[in-house]
């Protein structure tokens, strides 16, 4: 059984409510394989991305049933700008595609939405949409959906370092007080509980600059399924694999594990 380790960051995370049962996992998902899914069907990549939105819808519905309370998904990376302009445009349109049909339901079902990543570089319309989703769901606490958009792990770490440096330069922060907890508090993921599991479908086995700091003790599960095909059974399989892991957080192997071989 995978043990939970809690750090001081948890104090800012809300306690589970009874309606959410014992759901407490923080799972991150790299939504990958849209292009290959479309290619296999002789369709344009844009249709793969649209099918990916359907997969996100299914996964957000499935997650709370499987013990997940925080779901952080990679929507658009700081490196995705290098794709052809038409594809970038399609990816930029995805939050609207998702929220137009789902924001009311997310609002009603107690889901709190938060956008991670840089707002600079995004169109004012898109920033307004992300902020509207955050504002309309701000009082919700049954389930937490983080959408990383224009997000890069290295960029997020650099931005945090700059914010801390500015605070020091302005005399608001003592450099001696910068430790792991203070640093985590300057990232765009500040206040989220520690990451338990990173799932990447599509067969690729790398982080691709997603949640680098947060991945410190996350378990990694890679699945041979393309994101548009992802469903409740796929997420259940990833969580079953996670639960079979022995999480030690740098500690020694327990006697139980040694006896069990
Ligand atoms: C993931 O699918 C979508 C984003 C990167 C936003 P891809 O577009 O990377 O699909 P593949 O990897 O080319 O199949
Ligand atoms: Mg890809």
Can you tell me about this structure?
Residues 1-20 are annotated as: Disordered. The protein has 261 residues and is an alpha/beta fold. It has helices at residues 34-40, 45-62, 85-92, 94-108, 124-136, 153-169, 180-184, 232-243, 255-260; strands spanning 25-30, 68-77, 111-116, 143-151, 197-200, 219-222. It has a six-stranded parallel sheet, sandwiched between helices. The chain is globular, with a radius of gyration of 19 Å. The structure holds 3-methylbut-3-enyl trihydrogen diphosphate and magnesium ion.
Report, as a whole number of angstroms, the end-to-end distance.
15 Å
Any idea of the CATH topology of the domain at 22-151 and 194-242?
A: Undecaprenyl pyrophosphate synthetase
* β-strand number: 6
| Global mean pLDDT | 91
- What structural class is derived from the secondary structure elements? alpha/beta
Shape: globular
Quick structural summary:
InterPro entries: UPP_synth-like, UPP_synth-like_CS, UPP_synth-like_sf. One of its GO terms (cellular component) is cytosol. With 261 residues, this protein is an alpha/beta fold.
How is the secondary structure organized here?
Layout lengths: L24 E6 L3 H7 L4 H18 L5 E10 L7 H8 L1 H15 L2 E6 L7 H13 L6 E9 L1 H17 L10 H5 L12 E4 L18 E4 L9 H12 L11 H6 L1
Parallel strand pairs: 1-2, 1-5, 2-4, 3-4, 5-6
Name the descriptors:
261 residues, alpha/beta, Undecaprenyl pyrophosphate synthetase, 6-stranded parallel beta sheet, 9 helices, 15% strand, binds 3-methylbut-3-enyl trihydrogen diphosphate, binds magnesium ion, transferase, UPP_synth-like_CS, metal-binding, magnesium
């Amino acid at each position: 059984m995978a043990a939970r380790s809690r750090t001081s960051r948890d104090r800012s995370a809300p306690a589970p409510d009874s309606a959410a049962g014992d759901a407490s996992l923080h799972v991150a998902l790299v939504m990958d394989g849209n292009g290959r899914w479309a290619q296999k069907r002789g369709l344009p990549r844009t249709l793969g991305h649209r099918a990916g939105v359907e997969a996100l819808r299914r996964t957000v519905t499935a997650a709370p049933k499987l013990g997940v309370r925080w779901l952080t998904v990679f929507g658009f990376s700081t490196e995705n700008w290098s794709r052809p302009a038409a594809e970038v445009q399609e990816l930029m349109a995805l939050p609207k595609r998702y929220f137009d049909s789902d924001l009311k339901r997310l609002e009603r079902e107690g889901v709190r939405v938060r956008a991670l990543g840089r707002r600079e570089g995004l169109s004012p319309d898109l920033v307004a949409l992300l902020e509207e989703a955050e504002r309309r769901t701000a009082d919700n606490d049954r389930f937490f959906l983080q959408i990383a958009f224009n997000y890069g792990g290295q960029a997020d770490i650099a931005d945090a370092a700059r914010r801390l440096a500015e605070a020091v330069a302005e005399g608001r922060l003592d450099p001696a007080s910068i430790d792991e907890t203070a640093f985590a508090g300057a990232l765009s993921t500040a206040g989220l509980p520690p990451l338990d599991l990173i799932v990447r479908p599509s067969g690729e086995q790398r982080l691709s600059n997603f949640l680098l700091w947060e991945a410190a003790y996350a378990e990694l599960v890679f699945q041979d399924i393309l994101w548009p095909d992802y469903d409740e059974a796929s997420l259940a399989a990833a969580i079953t694999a996670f639960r079979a892991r022995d999480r030690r957080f740098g500690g020694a192997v327990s006697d139980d594990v040694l006896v069990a071989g």
